[in-house]
C-alpha cells in the first residue's frame, strides 16, 4: 500500500512536459531548480502575445538541450503561479531568468529572443555545446558573415526578407516565401534570402528597416537596395522575380511555356515548316542568327531541329517532343528538367 501511495504521489508531482520544456509550478519548482544543474526559466502568461511569439523558439531551445544532462529548460505560468512570479520579481511577460549550477538565486536574462541567441548564451554559461536543430529550407539565411558576399555580388539579383523571429506577420509569410525559394532554387543569379534583422540590428538599420517583415530587392546594378511593395502571395513574388531576373519560373520550380523561346527564330521555325522548298536557305539564316545570339544553347537547338527535320522528316518535332515528355515523367535532375523543358517549347514552334 505504501509503495502504491508513493508511486501515486510521484506521478502527480511530476512535471508536465511540452516537447522538451519542463512545466514548473509551486509544487515542483524547488525540486528542479535546486542548484544541481544550470536552469533557464521562462515566466509567461497564457494570454501574453509576446509569450506566444516566443513559444516556437523556446521549444527549439528545449529540443537543443534535450540530451544534455546538466541543463534544465523550463517555464512557469506566472499568471497562475503568482507567488512564484513575485518571489523572483516578475513584473511583465515573458520574463527570462537563469540559475547557475550551484545556485538557487535567479539572474535576469536580457539577451536576444531567438533560439540561437538563447542557446548561445546557455552554452557560454553552462560550458555546453548544444545546437539548434534547423528545419530544412531553401531560403538562404544571411548574417553578418555572409550578407555582403551574397547581396553585393554584382552577378546576382537578391530578394531579401528582413524579419524578426517573434513577428507574427513574418511567421505567416514563411511558408509562402519558402515556396518562392523552392521555385528559384535552380536559378543561381536569382537568390531568395532572409535576415534576422532583430538579431542583426546594425544591418537592418543600415537599410532603413523599421518594421517586420521588410522586403528589399538588390538587383545586379543597384546594391543600395530597392523596396519591394508588391503583394505577399507566392505568385506575386514569382511574377516580380521573373520580371526582374528575366526568368520563366512557375511555382514549384518548373519552366513556363515561353522558356527558351527566341522570337526571331520562332518566325524562322514556322517559315521552315511552311516553305519546304526553301528549307536550305532558312536553315542557313537560322545558323547566322544563332551564332550571334546571347543564348547560344537555346538558339542552336532551333538549328539542330531544322537539321533533324531535313534528315528524318517533318514528324521529328512531334516524336521528339513525345520522347522528352516520357523522360520528364521519370527521375531527372533539375538541370536536365530545365534543358528538356526548353527543348519541348522550341519543338512546339515547329508543330504549329
Describe the structure.
It is a single chain. With 352 residues, this protein is α/β, with parallel strands linked by helices. The chain folds into three domains: 2-126, 3-Layer(aba) Sandwich (Glutaredoxin); 140-245, Glutaredoxin; 263-348, Endoplasmic reticulum resident protein 29, C-terminal domain (Endoplasmic reticulum protein erp29, Up-down Bundle). The protein contains 14 helices and eleven strands. The strands form two sheets. The chain has a six-stranded mixed beta sheet with strand order 1-2-4-3-5-6. α7 (168-183) links the parallel β8 and β9 (190-196).
Quote the beta fraction.
5-15%
Strands ordered across the widest β-sheet: 1-2-4-3-5-6
Overall pLDDT confidence: 92
The helix fraction, in percent, is 40-55%
* Run of helices and strands: HEEHEHEHEEHEHEHEHEEHHHHHH
Radius of gyration: 30 Å
User: How would you characterize the largest beta sheet?
Assistant: 6 strands, mixed
* CATH class identity of the largest domain: Alpha Beta
Discrete helix count: 14
CATH superfamily of the largest domain: Glutaredoxin
Q: Detail the poorly predicted runs.
A: 1-18
Q: Which architecture of the largest domain would the CATH scheme give at its second level? A: 3-Layer(aba) Sandwich
